[in-house]
Specification:
Chain A is an alpha/beta fold. Chain A contains 18 helices and 21 strands. In chain A, 45% of the residues lie in helices and 13% in strands. Classes of the chains: A alpha/beta (471), B mainly alpha (53). Chains A and B meet through α1, α10, α11, α12 and α17 of A and α2 of B.
């Protein structure tokens, strides 16, 4: 660990990180960092002093305060797939661009499932909305179709400022109340190797000034944008992420931050990213160790390279999710719905992943290792002895309804029973289930006056042109 | 047809929907912030030198 830490610090001190944002460079120069053009060199003393300001645990309170989440400690939180540009479902059976309708359906699924704790980026990019005003409509949908802790993209001043204002309006709170405690979060990705881009840094600094939740997740694919060795890739990832956190802490000491790992490997035959691999799992665990070393909350992901919700999709995602659990991750992004390395979102995959998440949540329940006399069940064994069975005895009768995790999607019938009911494979069952969930979904309540104010804000900002685009 | 539909009494909004829909589509535990009770897996020794025996 000391060797990885020392390597990350040497990178910050001797190679430096490019900050493609003049304001950020000026701030860090003022902080005493050595600057050469866009390259900022941070001394380890400065970095460690800044990290000492970052809280080990913090909260996000969304518009429904009952959905408040705690980031850090021994808490773990799961969120929806975020940001794929494409959509796939069994009925369409093609990879097609995302739309607002598909995006809204993912929001409904995210609200419906209790194993989803926060709402990350757009589950699928609604590309039928114009980019200049997309953030307004997409955030309106997020804030009305769900009441869980929301994310907004750090993509330049207009989008993040609009995002903060919409979250404030949706919560029905004053600017002072918004600034007093985190109500939302953003996530930035460094442009590996060793670079932070202008719009993300801009959003990062604006959110830092308002005291909102900050996640930085370097996209360090070993062999492509980072060294081919996993500890080297982790060290580079740390240098990139810690440099952003140091900037945030210098701007607003104590602002809540979390370090996100997105270190994985690529297929060295093609350059394609791979996820849920043994290397990915170890990188996630090692990053968890380093986050505890720095006393920072940690983010990881539920990711896969598979293109459709098949066996590969589930073993890769399950490996990723369990690596998140093993690593002590606090926030697990993309925990439901991700395919094709993050390029496709699928409702069937969402439902299949939630089946795994519900199992993980059950796995956490202390009742499974409780050792009361009733749990040890000596009397039950004494009653049945050598020739009976446990189905009918009172000990079983008293407990059977809650004794085990209950599937929503898994099929536990034997082959003949499964075949007699049509021999339906998992993804097809997931397809039917996601449609039934959408029918059963209920929009969370929102005060009509707040909804009207939110609508008015969106319309006003739309009339003003939203955010500038470069095309 | 339109007139008939317009005359029809409203189904009771959220309460009516809950009444009509019957049992939940999936059984799930209530929403809460979960706790991970396990010690993390930590492959790296403090002073480095992990990996090969």
């Amino acid at each position: 660990m000391e060797a990885i830490h020392d390597t990350a610090m040497r990178v910050l001190e001797e190679i430096g990180v490019a900050f493609l944002n003049p304001e950020a460079v000026a701030i860090l120069k003022h902080a005493g960092c050595r600057v050469d053009g866009e390259i900022v060199y941070m001394g380890r003393d400065f970095v460690m002093e800044m990290l000492s300001h970052a809280p080990e645990q913090w909260t996000i309170t969304p518009r429904n305060p009952d959905r408040k989440i705690t980031v850090g400690g021994n808490h773990i939180l799961f969120g929806n797939v975020s940001s794929p540009p494409n959509y796939w479902d069994m009925e369409i059976d093609r990879k097609i661009p995302g739309t607002r309708q598909y995006y809204a359906n993912f929001l409904r699924l995210s609200q419906y499932y209790n194993c989803i704790h926060f709402i990350g980026g757009y589950s699928v990019e609604p590309v039928d909305l114009h980019p200049s005003t997309r953030h307004l409509d997409a955030l309106f949908d997020k804030l009305t179709l769900t009441d869980k802790a929301p994310h907004a993209y750090s993509l330049g001043p207009e989008r993040i400022e609009d995002g903060m204002e919409m979250v404030r309006i949706a919560a029905g709170i004053s600017h002072e109340e918004f600034d007093a405690t985190p109500r939302m979060f953003t996530n930035i990705n460094s442009t590996s190797p060793l670079k932070h881009d202008w719009p993300m840094l801009d959003g990062w600094m604006r959110m830092a000034r308002r005291g909102q939740g900050l996640l930085v997740s370097p996209f360090t694919l070993a062999g492509a944008m980072a060294p081919v060795t996993m500890v080297g890739a982790v060290a580079q990832s740390l240098a990139e992420g810690l440099s952003a956190i140091a900037l945030a802490q210098y701007i607003n000491p104590g602002v809540p931050c979390a370090f996100g790992t997105f270190t994985s490997n690529v297929d060295m035959k093609t350059g394609a990213p791979a996820f849920g691999t043994p290397e990915y799992m170890r990188a996630t665990q090692i990053t968890g160790q380093m986050c505890r070393y720095y006393k920072l909350p940690m983010r990881s992901s539920g990711a896969c390279a598979a293109n459709v919700p098949d066996g590969q999709a589930m073993w890769e995602t399950s490996n990723s999710l369990w690596a998140g659990v093993q690593s002590g991750s606090h926030i697990i992004y993309h925990a439901a719905g991700w395919l094709e390395g993050g390029l496709i979102a699928s409702p069937e995959k969402f439902v299949m992943d939630c089946e795994v998440l519900s199992q993980i949540l059950r796995y956490f329940e202390p009742v499974l290792w409780r050792t009361d006399p009733g749990d040890l069940a000596y009397e039950a064994m004494d009653e049945v002895r050598h020739n009976g069975h446990f189905f009918g005895i009172q000990h079983t009768q008293d407990r059977y309804e809650t004794a085990f995790w209950q599937p929503s999607l898994s099929d536990w019938k034997n082959f003949e029973g499964w075949q007699a009911q049509g021999g339906v494979w998992t993804a097809e069952r997931a397809h039917l289930l996601y449609k039934r969930i959408l029918e059963d979904y209920e929009e969370p309540p929102m005060d009509p006056d707040i909804r009207a104010e939110l609508t008015e804000f969106v319309e006003r900002r739309r009339a003003e042109g939203g955010a500038p685009t470069d095309f | 047809m339109t007139t008939d539909l317009m005359k029809r009494k409203r189904g009771g909004g959220r309460a009516g929907h809950a009444k009509r829909r019957g049992p939940a589509v999936i059984n799930q535990a209530p929403w809460c912030v979960p706790v991970n009770p396990d010690r993390p897996t930590e492959p790296m020794p403090m002073e480095g030198g992990g990996g090969d025996p």
